[in-house]
Amino acid sequence: MSMAPDISPAGAVSAAPAGPGKAHPFLVFVLRRLGQAIIVIFVVTVVVFALLQMLPGGPARGVLGVQATAEQIATFNHEQGFDRPIWEQYILFLGRLLRGDLGESYLLNKSVADAIAQRLPKTLLLTGLSLVAAVIVAIPVGIFQAVRRNGVVDYTLSTLAIVAYSTPSFFLGMLLILVFSQNLGILPANAPQGETVADVLMVPGRLILPVAAGAIPLVANFSRYMRSSALDGLSEDYIRTARSKGTPAIRVLSRHLLRNSVTPLIAMLGYQLPVMFGGALVIEQLFNYPGMGLLFWSAAQSSDFPVLLGCVLVISAATVIGSLLADIVQALLDPRTRGGIA
């Protein structure tokens, strides 16, 4: 006897049990996504390796600088294996990456891995706080707009969201500094300084403006998606059934509508990582925040190519991992996505 899909009160379709000898659908889904992530990361390493080969004057000139002599360049190429065939160079490059060796920053006089390891946690703190703040605000705003759709408040919030999403990060940051620091004088313009995340958290007031600059565009984007998803959910049969049974409105929204409407938003979180890191590049420079975005900015100004390529590699890997985690979380919340339709 065949088993029909089970419809939960929240409207989610639960997956049928795997038959004898068949792998669990969720495991198959995770393995498929993991394989795709590995392929993407492999392509990223190829692109970064190609960029390294295309540095002006070659990798040695990019690392040692324009003042390096021919003897120094030859010695460097021999030590790093750049005088070997290109396929051998790529294998050596992969081997160094697997050992966590991203090269040396000639200007910082330290390894690229150490420089990134010191800055990356602070960037993750800034982007994480911005993301959490955006989700906390965007979810109720989006649901409220869906419930009060086509009203004055809905149109006003939609207009503000479009304006906020369209505003460049540097202009938004400058506007926040101008209003809250220069004119009102209630918030400091400079971000907290320190070598560690604990040092940064010692002055939480200085994080408000940088976090707000990162969160406002995300609120505008997430609230629009949440509104659209909630509107689709309000037209579903399980919502009408819950209302016809006399279920309180707040319970319908929180237990039935929210669970299904938030799934597309969760999927978006992983895909927002490159956008957030790109915004961090501007925000950290604007507020003088000692994260990886400021490191990338400084390396670009000083032509520190190993640091630039190391940042690109780390950000690309983080983006792939973030997308993978978002897909897995979405599959846990909505088994319908495991069939490859997501």
Blueprint of the fold:
Elements: E1 6-7, E2 13-14, H1 25-53, H2 58-64, H3 70-80, H4 86-98, E3 104-105, E4 110-111, H5 112-147, H6 152-166, H7 169-183, H8 197-201, H9 208-234, H10 237-244, H11 249-271, H12 273-287, H13 292-301, H14 305-333
Antiparallel strand pairs: 1-2, 3-4
Helix pairs in contact: 1-14, 2-3, 5-6, 5-9, 5-14, 6-9, 7-9, 7-12, 9-11, 9-12, 10-11, 11-14, 12-13, 13-14
**Reported CATH architecture of the domain at 124-303:** Orthogonal Bundle
* CATH T-level fold name of the domain at 124-303: MetI-like fold
The largest sheet is:
2 strands, antiparallel
Strand order of the largest sheet: 1-2
Shape, per Cα inertia axes = globular
Q: Give the proportion of residues in helices.
A: over 70%
User: What value does the Rg take, in angstroms?
Assistant: 25 Å
CATH class of the domain at 124-303: Mainly Alpha
Structural class assignment: mainly alpha
Count of strand segments: 4
